[in-house]
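lol so apparently i was supposed to do this last week
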Amino acid sequence: MNRLKRRSIACALLLIAVTGSQSLGLAQSPVLDGFAPKLSETQRKLEEQFRGVPSATNAREELRRLTAEAHIAGSPEDYATAVYVRDQMRSFGLNSDMREYQVLLPFPRTPSIVELIAPRRERLQVREDVVPEDPSSASKKIVPLYNGYGTSGDLTAPLVYVNYGLPNDYEALKKVGVDVKGTIAIARYGNSFRGVKAKVAEDHGAIGLIIYSDPADDGYTQGDVYPKGPWRPDSSAQRGSVQFLFIYPGDPLTPGLPAIPGTPRLKRELALNLPHIPVQPISYGDAQRLLKPLRGPARPKGFQGGLPFTYHTGGTSDVRVHLKTDIEFVTKTIWDVITRIDGSVEKDRWVVLGNHRDAWVFGAVDPNSGTTAMLELGRGLGQLMKTGWMPRRSIILGSWDAEEQGLIGSTEWAEDNAAELKEKAVAYLNVDVAVSGPNFGASSVPSMWKLIRSAAQDVRDPKTGKSIYDAWHGRLRSDLSESELYDANGNEKPATAPRIGPTIHFIGWRTSAIQLSNTMLPRHKSGARLRCVWRMRKACHSITPTMGWSLRSLSTKRSVWRCDASSPIRSTRNPC
Ligand SMILES: [Zn+2]
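anyway here it is w/ zinc ion bound
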């Protein structure tokens, strides 16, 4: 069979009705959405071939290579991971190249100081402990604790506890007569992106912000802490960007334009997505030294966290804190790796899968569980192409850089390719934290719900032997109450489809994000297989789902990443 015929069989299509397919022994949805019955069969065979490729041994080795060194964006170690991803993709027979951007990145020149001045003088640790069971935690290359794009500063001021640091928290403080103007605010992580906490703090006149992980949200209240369990131990703190992503993400100095030679750059003072105050993350071990002596009104239940004392507002001169941050802003080269497979019929329709590669530290879960799944997906595509298969539409696999600092690599690439993306992008699948446990979850725009559910029906869950969809569904039902499961006569109510959460879609593409999460068990093979199925169907069915909107009418200014956090402790659960 010639190449063209083969691919047209694989990828030409229709939507018709249905017959049952039992490949893998799973109860598969009958005719695949978007495919004629015959083509659906061919597609299933190809997918089965595809699913046979991702291998746990390969995934393990790829993850080991990607996380052998701490690889913060712009570092030589980060460059080495870009070369590795490019070369792996090329070794699979795919066309892969690097694209460089020169962007403004923040680095701590010296470790920050957080010091209690009153009621006693005590300098806090502001450093994560070495975990004897985890030799990587002793690496000398681990960057000190900092929040990306917080400013340098050296301040001493009263401290105010602002709960999650959101507008309603400040409203509640105002009601009990506490004003944060001229103070250092201390907020706990959670309930919003940390950049929002920085913006709200500075808008309320705080001169500095400390953010900590409360054990009620991310620590012993939730379960055993690392290394006994996956939760955050008492010296661990969450790094992360406080860029104002909601104003614009990406390189602060080139909004709307790619950060390449020749692009005019703003002065840093004029960049609207940067905070104006120092922001520092600390652990709950350190935070309790600051919170326990606070006076002022005791806070109601919603303000109380998991530390063993009553939380007060502070804001009085009883507790004063010294905060010193020393941040250097440097223009650095970053490296996206773009792998392209041309479509056989609709070359100018692009199905894009993206995953960042940079990490604050080692990034075994975030993002390299995703990079590993993407590499295995590349291996599968390469293998199929050796048999003459080509996707109907073009496929682009983007390995983004500097996501942690502010979705930078993906944004710059989108800005670099804005005109083409407006015309050609069909859908975007975001990977990032692909695997941290066995529980499947997804978020997506509604026009892709069907596709996600059908892909999940055709991939086996290694734990239960059922499909990932059935395991997902079973978990959902186990969370429901009796009254939600049964009607008044005791009859089981019809099963509802598992919920798919919303996702953001700044670029205006249809977007999805899927992951396996919630424990530390590795499931890369299933992650890669599921993505393969999603990808192949999206790239091959004959019609683009029509629900949605005109891609052309939408802005291409922004990228689609959600934000993440990381810790040098590889297994610590990511609360973002
Ligand atoms: Zn991430």
